[in-house]
Design goal:
- The protein is of the alpha+beta class and 967 residues long.
- Helix content is 23%, strand content 37%.
- It contains 13 helices and 66 strands.
- The strands form 17 sheets. It has a 5-stranded antiparallel β-sheet with strand order 1-30-57-56-55. Strands 60, 62, 64, 65 and 66 form a 5-stranded mixed β-sheet that branches. A 4-stranded antiparallel β-sheet has the order 2-29-28-27.
- Strand 21 and strand 22 (242-245) form a beta hairpin.
- Helix 11 packs across helix 12 (938-952).
């Protein structure tokens, strides 16, 4: 009982001390425990030289570094390098309020600025008087108002009103330092001098101490100067004399060679060294932080240092660039040498910090005022896997592979031999007992008479591995098996054995059997799975999705572990991703996860451990150390957080080849692009460098009306833009909370040639010309119409006259035709009469011929044949007289125009008898008449007709007479 009281008093005293210490720590700006978050920017990230000699920040928040390969810029997203003439090293850099970035190199200084939408370099070397040759490195630059001061080891150069004034002094200069509005430099061998006007004036020194190799001069309280030397430590100067300033870092600074310094947060002093990184002191000279390669820096040589307005400390290293979040809510302590292996659990107890690892249990004094001065030692006989550390009633339990131990003052006492003490917790229905899940079932602990927890007994009837163990409101024990789902155990009244055991798997509504864990949450038990959280329904004996919680948790619905954080707050661990959820307002959970993104993957999966040190301060086990999370620091950061504006960092042509249109979005020059180059990319960034999740939202007026969804993308492509003026609006959000102001970037896609003012002028000229031409054409058309009408009238008149003439001519032709017809009829009659006369004559001669045969002489006798022959000859000659035919032919030709000529032309093979037959047929004579005229028989006529048809090649279906009459 005495041990219990004393232990409780010690615990209470320790708790009060810790609370007091951490309350003080919360009020401080820089924490002593661990180191703040350090962001490493390796040369592979910024793709430039190793060494970074100087640092500055412009008015927009863009960081610039004097690099071994030129000027380097960083805006929180994009790195850019600007090469100096001759590829010189940039030793010094400074930004003025007008956007110029002044740089200094060997025998060269000038400035970079935006010209024609590009960063371009302007050298000022030509302004240096010829009598003062610039032939050394320019190591320091200070931009103040309208003047800029450049300093080399041989002289100081003041650029003002486009002139350079040279200030020299007997002896070489070391470095020029700015302290407020004062500029102080060491003249080697002579002491410190102040630049007053255009001359160097020695600082008053009434003492014997005169510091040398001065590499840092910073403002100190009571208007004093804090002077840092290369190997002789720190000095204070009160305006009259110098005195040594004794600090906890004297040996450190002298041994590792102070190289530069800066004042931070108005009360701390950070000094970079050549050999061992960085040290931070307070105004009393106490060491607040030490950071070097073993604690997270990339390199131990600090070539340059700068503190910005956002409590970032930038270090230009001999190999890389580092950014330190001075007021980070997360402070880290990592085992860089592999002393204690992988950390599974961590806890602060009775003034010590304990780390349970896979190699054993380590401890060190927990002294927040001592900074990183931890001296971890392995507790004897603790070698092996440590699973859990837990403080219950002022007693520290260590769940170990070899059993369970009580830990006190760096010593172990075994209190259980049950292997594998995974988890231990108090029974809710039986608070006088502790229940522990082990490799082979469950064991109970109970306090003895003196208040010490002792092993009581092992619960019989259950031997399964028990990773998580919780008691429900009915008193039943829920056990999580790594691979077999869940077990629900009912214990006997004396808690010594299992009276009923029920297993639950997919058949009972669980999504699967693997890694189903049980956790207490808001006075009930919930069950985790990769598919979300589940609740057990006693009535149906099944598990149902916890829909309301899963919806509130979002991506954390699949968390594999829940750790209480106090006052309705819980840590959710989703397979390496950490979030802190607040359920103070039912149904409106607030989940903070972005600030813990640096912890992703740094805790041992499925064995994540977070313990509460005091209100708002937590100890987080990392796989190779631990992290301290301080919410008070976060609140202070939120109070001072004011986001800068989003910067437009580039406009690019994507039409066919990737081409830079503009490197800057705030240029005064109008941004215009040809219509044929209307496929563009706009890149943008937020110059906010602290560890946070930055999202962007944009809108292009003239292209769309609505804002885009929030996205981490920092560039946007637009294709086939129409010609016209556009306004690109973009804003940023930090951790889904604070938003920046809207940045507006205007540009214009020029119209195609056919839509330009010149084209419109051409169109106007063409329109005027077209109107004039139309007028002339109209007048010409009127003239043509008049002429056409006149011609038409004349034509109509002529046609009328022609028709009259034709009518008259037709009348004449008709009359002539009628006359010719009459004449033809007359000739036809004459021809017919002539033919009939011939027929009559021939008939008469035939009759005479017939009668001659009957003719008798006077004696009544037939006349002699000789006489008959003579008479017949005369008759025959009369019948065949060609004169009759010639006369007939002439008459026939007169009546039938050239009938025989046409017939002979078409059928030259016709003989005269054929022609006669054709003429008789044309006159439509009968066969008898033709026989008489031809002096042949009717049969002869038919024969001749047949032969004539063949000669004329007349088809069988055509009448011969009709054919001849058609000729």
């Amino acid at each position: 009982m005495l041990f219990q009281k004393n232990g409780f008093r010690r615990f209470l005293l320790f708790f009060v001390c810790c609370l007091s210490i951490f309350s003080n720590l919360a009020a401080e700006d820089i924490k002593r425990i661990g180191v703040p978050y350090i962001q490493n920017y390796s040369k592979d990230m910024y793709s430039s030289g190793n060494q970074n000699w100087s640092i500055t920040r412009d008015k927009q928040g863009v960081m610039y570094f004097g690099n071994g390969e030129g000027l380097l810029s960083y805006d929180g997203k994009y790195w850019k390098q600007y090469e100096m003439p001759g590829r010189q090293i940039v030793r010094s850099v400074a930004a003025n309020k007008n956007g110029r970035i002044y740089v200094g190199s060997y025998a060269e200084f000038g400035y970079w600025s935006i010209k024609n939408n590009r960063m371009q370099y302007t050298s000022l070397k030509g302004l240096v008087p010829n009598t003062h040759a610039l032939d050394s490195e320019v190591w320091k630059i200070y931009a103040e108002g309208t003047r800029t001061i450049f300093q080399s080891f041989s002289a100081i150069y003041i650029f003002q009103d486009n002139k350079v004034t040279v200030i020299e002094h007997r002896g070489s200069l070391l470095f020029l330092h700015q302290v407020g509005k004062r500029y102080i430099a060491e003249v080697l061998g002579q002491g410190l001098f102040e630049l007053q006007g255009n001359r160097l004036v020695a600082l008053k020194n009434e003492g014997l101490v005169n510091p040398s190799d001065v590499l840092s001069i910073l403002p100190f309280k009571d208007r004093q100067l804090l002077i840092g030397t290369r190997k002789n430590g720190l000095y204070l100067y009160d305006g009259r004399r110098y005195r040594q300033f004794k600090t906890q870092a004297d040996e450190f600074l002298q041994r590792y060679q102070l190289n530069n310094g800066t004042k931070i947060l108005n009360k701390y002093y950070a000094y970079g060294t050549i050999l061992n990184g960085l040290v931070i002191l307070d105004e009393s000279g106490a060491v607040i932080q030490r950071m070097n390669k073993s604690t997270g820096l990339q390199n131990n040589t600090v070539l340059s240092i700068l503190a910005d307005q956002e409590q970032n400390l930038w270090l230009g290293l001999d190999n890389g660039i580092d950014r330190i979040e001075l007021n980070s809510p997360l402070n880290f302590y990592f085992d860089k040498v592999g002393q204690f292996g992988t950390v599974y659990s961590s806890l602060i107890f009775e003034g010590n910090i304990y780390l349970g690892t896979n190699q054993g249990l380590f401890y060190s004094r927990w002294a927040p005022e001592g900074g990183n001065a931890f001296d971890f030692k392995l507790i004897p006989n603790s070698q092996g896997q440590v699973w859990e550390l837990k403080n219950i009633d002022g007693q520290l339990f260590c769940g170990h592979n070899d059993g369970t131990f009580r830990v006190s003052a760096g010593n172990l006492e075994r209190i259980s031999t049950a292997s594998g003490g995974w988890t231990i917790t108090r029974l809710q229905r039986d608070p006088e007992y502790l229940i522990q899940g082990t490799y082979n079932g469950l064991v109970l602990f109970k306090k003895d008479a003196s208040g010490i927890w002792r092993f009581h007994h092992k619960i019989e009837g259950f031997v399964e591995p028990s990773r998580y163990v919780e008691q429900d409101a009915k008193g039943d024990i829920w056990v999580s098996h790594p691979y077999k789902g869940l077990y629900r155990l009912t214990l006997s009244a004396d808690l010594k054995k299992v009276t009923a055991s029920t297993s639950y798997d997919e058949k009972n509504g669980l999504p699967n059997n693997i890694n189903i864990n049980v956790f207490p949450f808001e006075n009930k038990l919930i069950f985790s799975s990769d598919k979300g959280f589940y609740l057990y329904d006693e009535v149906s004996n099944k598990f149902n999705p916890y829909t309301a919680l899963n919806k509130e948790l979002g991506v954390f619905a699949g968390s594999n572990k829940i750790i209480p954080a106090g006052r309705h707050r819980y840590w959710f661990i989703n397979h390496g991703k950490t979030g802190l959820a607040d359920f103070s307002v039912p149904g409106k959970a607030k989940i903070e996860s972005e600030r813990f993104s640096v912890l992703d993957g740094r805790m041992v999966q499925y064995y994540e451990n977070i313990s509460k040190i005091s209100e708002g301060i937590y100890l987080i086990s990392a796989d190779d150390g631990f992290v301290v999370y301080n919410e008070a620091t976060l609140a202070a950061t939120k109070d001072v957080k004011q986001l800068p504006s989003v910067l437009i960092r580039g406009l690019y042509d994507l039409t066919d080849t990737y081409k830079v249109i503009s490197e800057h979005g705030s240029t005064r020059d109008p941004i215009e692009m040809a219509y044929s180059r209307n496929n563009i990319r706009i890149s943008y960034s937020l110059p906010y460098y602290r560890n946070a999740n930055v999202r962007y939202q944009y809108k292009l007026e003239g292209y769309s009306k609505d804002w885009s969804d929030w996205s981490t993308a920092s560039q946007k492509d637009f294709t086939n833009l129409s010609w016209g003026k556009y306004r690109f609006l973009v804003r940023a959000s930090i951790d889904r909370e604070t938003q920046s102001k809207v940045t507006v970037f205007e540009f214009e896609v020029l119209p195609p040639f056919y839509a330009t003012n010149f084209a419109y002028f051409i169109y106007l000229l063409l329109l005027v010309g077209l109107a004039y031409l139309s007028k002339r054409l109209y007048e010409h058309k009127l003239l043509q119409d008049k002429q056409r009408i006149t011609e038409k009238l004349q034509k109509e008149k002529d046609e009328f006259l022609k028709r009259e003439a034709e009518h008259t001519e037709k009348q004449i032709i008709k009359l002539e035709h009628e006359k010719l017809q009459a004449e033809l009829a007359s000739k036809n009659r004459e021809l017919a009469n002539s033919a009939m006369s011939l027929v009559y004559k021939n008939e008469l001669l035939q009759k005479l011929s017939q009668e001659v045969a009957k003719l008798k002489d006077g004696t009544g006798k037939l006349i002699s044949e000789d006489q008959q022959r003579k008479i017949q000859q005369i008759i025959t000659e009369g019948m065949n007289d060609e004169r009759d035919w010639v006369l007939f032919e002439n008459s026939f030709n007169d009546a039938h125009d050239s009938f025989f000529k046409k017939l002979k032309t078409k059928h030259p093979e016709l003989v005269p008898n054929d022609l006669k037959l054709c003429a008789f047929l044309h006159m439509n004579m009968s066969s008898k008449e033709m026989a008489s005229l031809l002096n042949i028989s009717l049969r002869g006529v038919e024969i001749r007709r047949y032969r004539l048809r063949k000669k004329l090649n007349i088809p069988h279906d055509m009448n011969l007479t009709e054919f001849l009459m058609s000729i």
